[in-house]
Amino acid sequence: MAILSIDFGGTRTRAAWFSHGLNMQARDEAPTPVGQPPSAVIARVIEIARQVVPPGQKPAAIGLCAPGPQAATGLILHAPTLPGWDRIPLAQIVADAFDAPVFMENDANLAALAEYHLGAARGANPALYLTVSTGIGGGAVINGALFTGWRGLAIEPGHIKFPLPDGRIRSLEDLASGTAIGRRAKERLAEGDQPSALRNCAVVDGRTVGLAAAQGDALALDVIAEAGRWLGLGLVCLMHLFNPQAIVIGGSVANLGDLIFNPVREIIAAHLTDPAFNDPDLIRAARLGDDVCLIGAAFYARARSEV
Amino acid sequence: MAILSIDFGGTRTRAAWFSHGLNMQARDEAPTPVGQPPSAVIARVIEIARQVVPPGQKPAAIGLCAPGPQAATGLILHAPTLPGWDRIPLAQIVADAFDAPVFMENDANLAALAEYHLGAARGANPALYLTVSTGIGGGAVINGALFTGWRGLAIEPGHIKFPLPDGRIRSLEDLASGTAIGRRAKERLAEGDQPSALRNCAVVDGRTVGLAAAQGDALALDVIAEAGRWLGLGLVCLMHLFNPQAIVIGGSVANLGDLIFNPVREIIAAHLTDPAFNDPDLIRAARLGDDVCLIGAAFYARARSEV
User: Fold this and answer.
1) ipTM of the complex
2) Would B114 be classed as within a structural domain?
3) Is pLDDT at A73 greater than 80 in this prediction?
4) CA distances from A76 to A65, A73, A81, A104, B68 (A)
5) Do B153 and A276 lie within an 8 Å CB cutoff?
């Protein structure tokens, strides 16, 4: 009754073999060849996964983690990290390759499940999870079970929309992700002549803006604070709608620490209807690191295959 | 095993006596004396409720509907229709008056439950309910049960926050409720000299703006379309977060029909990440009318008292 877990990410693909008791017994990872067509990418994902299957064995179930909102039918609808993918039936292709049932879910949903069972949100009800990195994804665990809505598309906090001062309407993902931080810093550098260490960087992206901010660079600090205020407004929305007991935040942007969380906290303090919606322990750092989706996918496949 | 149901509203208080099978056997209503201090208001609410209790009988349970977000402990935290009320232990006072257990909930939550069991959202999962009138309230039914979050404060879609072009941050309730429509029309009348039938109205409020718009008044139509765009942005947020099967919309603003729903639909069409989040049958008009909260409160009290 072993479980194969596959975390198909926009940058790397990870695979692991779990016992029924969810002990990880083999693990492998390799870059995802995102530049190639979907069929070649999928073939490579299957190849990586085969590395962890013990000779002569077959998984009882496969947990498959993939980016973007997903229909309950196992289609990837689209994802910022997978340009050109449109309604690809990934779950069916992987099921055929291993002759085993595949339970596919969104990366942030599976991370939410893992952080709820083993990480920072243990026992919290409701427990929300946000990953803030290249994009912004989210998951919700309500009454101990993954909440995915009618067609399996919930929850997508990266797609909360806000109007900008110039009238355009933008996603939270376009305002507060690492990608957004990099783009906004480039705009600010082009707009004026404010001195900044970023003017000497070959690459201006979320990572280098974070490094410059940590050194006290005023422009970088401003850009991150702006992203933090948008993220705070997104969290205010989640708090008024879900009244969560915990919101776990993972992803590279969360690693910026107080640089991003101070403006988040200011916006929350200013805009909650009632302090009862908040709690000192409400917003928590993710705990499970890089294997969070592998663990979540294994949990999910075990639970779903035993129903 | 009869149930007393009380709908304590900012304008009127309604009470009904239900059989265990939820047949309404007596009903009364009267204005809520909102100008008076909380103790006098509560005494009057209890007096109205006593009218429907048959002589010599005692309710097995009391369902109590009240405005605003409420702690699971039965406190009213605050409500736009009840200025000056702050953490009033209404549930306990009513329980003492009738010597029966009280199950108190927010008006929109109970309306959600009633529309789910008997109205426009029958069988939908998740089912969301929004009331758009003086304020904006909401409720969610997930897997057939009322979803109220950690401390009983979910869901409050009226408190989704949006930034305005001038940098101020405002609640959806301040942008799209009937109160907001009236206020915005007054601002527009004061700002310029655009001709409008509203200049001849003694009272400019949500109701009179709606009447003027129905006659084709351009200023009134503009103000309602603007409120509709904000409401649409709020619904986009709810759709991406909950992936609901139905959103039932009640309240006086919903009665404006296409005047408000056309701009709502335009914003939804323009800003959903994927059409799979939508459905022709997703947004529905409320069906249960003025007694929706009495019915929801009776349902709720019966379910909770039998756990």
Assistant:
1) 0.94
2) no
3) no
4) 11, 9, 12, 9, 40
5) yes
